[in-house]
Fold this sequence. Notes:
binds tryptophan, 52% helix, binds adenosine monophosphate, Tyrosyl-Transfer RNA Synthetase, three-stranded parallel beta sheet, 5 strands
Amino acid sequence: MSEQTITxxxxxxxxxxxxxxxxxxxxxYLGAIxxxxxxxxxxxxxxxxxxxxxxxxxxxxxxxxxxTREVAAAFIAAGVDPERSIIFNQSAVSAHAELAWIFNxxxxxxxxxxxxxxxxxxxxxxxxxSVGLFAYPNLMAADILAYKATHVPVxxxxxxxxxxxxxxxxxxxxDFDAPGFFPLPEPLIAGPATRVMSLRDGSAKMSKSEKSDHxxxxxxxxxxxxxxxxKKAKSDPDLLxxxxxxxxxxxxxxxxxxxxxxxxxxxxxxxVEQFAGQQFSSLKNELTDLAxxxxxPIRGEMDKLLADQDELDKVLASGAGRADEIAQPILSETKRxxxxx
Length: 341
Ligand code: AMP
Ligand code: TRP
């Protein structure tokens, strides 16, 4: 039955990407960037600012450049060490786009038609969406597999894209009789904040594109803004529950307690116990202090890094050079397997 008895045997590696589109927020930090920092101790890691993904919807060129630097600065300010890990921007390493083309020819229309992110982003006017937006998950598979990355830390919203990456790897290995050539990358989606919700609506994801700025805590928010946003955050009329079971049907309570747990590196059960029977207002007060204590130093460090653009560009260029050294031999071997001279 299984032709894939030979599985990937190569080294383990972590890859993840963040788009340089507008405001980075607490969801990006807790769902992704904070995890990047922890994983550096266990794995060789590549963290990429995915500018080619960003242009699947039109970006102002000046803003694209500044957002690219901002995301790189956020990685470093949050604790990603650019010596230990590789930080770079996607368009600086040509293997991403080249491998994406090959994957465009491996992935099936039917697979991409099922992608919910495309449906959300294209909205009602699908005819007017860019071809790039539709093929976006193929590029994401190329990002990961250009390095034969085995583990991918992301928020919950990327689960379906990761499954597609696995399908592409599997189909490539089968179609070209190259068992175990590409690994089937594993998503790392865990912890209390894999899906941080909007502060105005516990049933909607916290997102860069939501119009109301009060729906999210931005990494660029100062202490006053953070305090105001948590104060105004939606709540419900009941006291906080005594157990995690009591969070069912209470998305706002679940979200704020989950954020508290993730920011303090504690289990949700533990945090629920701490606030059992208390008012939302006391949770909000403590959460505000906690969030400020974590986010203020990151914001300060980001400002410092962004003040020296040349230095930041050097970090990105050096990261791109190191990334390219890993990707080129993998791309060459892929082309050989496909029959490209
Ligand atoms: P993006 O800004 O779409 O490039 O997302 C960058 C990373 O942040 C990805 O790993 C996402 O899954 C993650 N992410 C985005 N929004 C959230 C959220 N509301 N909660 C948790 N993770 C998120
Ligand atoms: N699609 C991801 C997002 O929107 C960003 C991304 C692009 C990514 N390429 C990746 C994440 C590769 C992990 C691995 O959040």
